[in-house]
Amino acid sequence: MDIKSIVLRQVKMDLLHPFTTSVGTEYDKDFILVEVLSKSGLSGWGESVSIVEPIYNEETVQTNWHIMSDFLIPMLMKASIQHPDDVSDLFRPIRRNFNAKAALECAIWDLYAKENSLTLAKALGGVKQQIEVGVSVGIKNSVDELLRQVEGYVNEGYKRIKVKIKPEWDLEIVKAIRREFPQVPLMADANCAYTIEDIPHLQQLDEFGLTMIEQPLDSDDIIDHAKLQKELQTPICLDESIHTVEDARKAIELGSCKIINLKIGRVGGLTETKKIHDLCESRGIPVWCGGMLEAGIGRAHNIAITSLANFTLPGDTAPSSHYWKKDIITPEVKMKDGYIEFPKGDGIGYEPNMKLIDELTVVSRTFS
Ligand SMILES: O=C(O)CCC(=O)c1ccccc1C(=O)O
Ligand SMILES: [Mg+2]
Asked: Which ranges carry the Mandelate racemase/muconate lactonizing enzyme C-terminal domain (predicted)?
C-alpha cells in the first residue's frame, strides 16, 4: 500500500440530544477525522472516538492529536504496509493510546478495501447481510421522561434497549421499564459506577431478566468482576476493561464476564477487534458492537465489523438521525424495522460529505 499523505481534521458537531452517563454529560462532540490518501488516488477514512475530556478512558482529542502527529503518523510514513494487519504490529512499541491507533488503522483498512474493490465488511471476513440494532438511553431528569423515550424507541423498532445506570438511578428505573415493557430485551450499563460492596444491591437486578449488565465495576478490575459474576444470575458484559485479546482471554478464564462489548477504538483497531471476536467465538462468548456516539465515518466501521459471525447480539449502532441533524456521510445510516442493511460500495461504503466536513473543521494538518 503506497501512502501519499495523511490529513488530520478536528471537527466539531452538535449532538441532537445531550447524552448522560454515570461519568458525565456530552452536549456536542469534538473529534478527529483521519484521511489517508494513496498514490493511486484513493482515500481511506477513520474517526477517533476520543472526546475532549478523559472520562471514558484516559485519552482525549488533544492526546490523540499529539500521539498521531508526533509518533504514529511518522511511523506509518516510513513503513511499508502490505496489509492492514501490519499496522497494529507497527504501532506496538507505542503503549496504549488505543483510540489514536484505531483511527489511523481504520483509515488504512478502508483504503485497503477500496484498493482491492471490496466492501470493508468483506475485507474483514464478514458474513452477515444485515445487523440488529439496539439503542443506548442516557440518564434522564425523571423516570417519566425515560419511560416516554423508551416507548419511542420500542415503537421505532429497536431490537434491544440499553439504559445507563448508577447508584440511585438503577432499581427504580429498571422496574418501571419492566412494568410497562415486560418483554423488551433490556440491559443496563453502569460505566464502572459500583464497587464490590454493592453485590447485594446489584443482586436485586436479577429479578428483571436483563440480558446483561455492562461494566458494573472499575475499568481495570477483572478480579472483582469475577467475584461479582459468581454472585449474579445476570450475565456481566465487559466494556472498559477490555483493550486487547489478552485482556479478553484473562477475563474469560477468570469468569469475569459472559459477554464482551467490542469497540474498535477501545482495542486499538479492527485487527485487534477481529482477534477478540475470534477468541470469543472459540470460547462460546457472544460479542456485540458498542458505540461511542460516532459520526458517520466511525459508525460505518462499526457496521462493517458487525458483519462478523459472532456479533450475535444487537449493537449500539443506531442510525445517523438518532444523533445528528445532518451526518457527515452520504447516504446517512438508516434503520428499517430494527435492522441496518450493509452498504454495497467499496470500503466503508459511504461517501464523506466534504462540503459539510469542511464547514465543521476547526483545525487540520496534512502530513506528506
Ligand atoms: O454510541 C452509542 O449510542 C452508545 C453510547 C454509549 O453507551 C456510550 C457512549 C459514550 C461512551 C461510552 C458509552 C458506553 O457504551 O459505555
Ligand atoms: Mg459501556
From this structure: 143-235
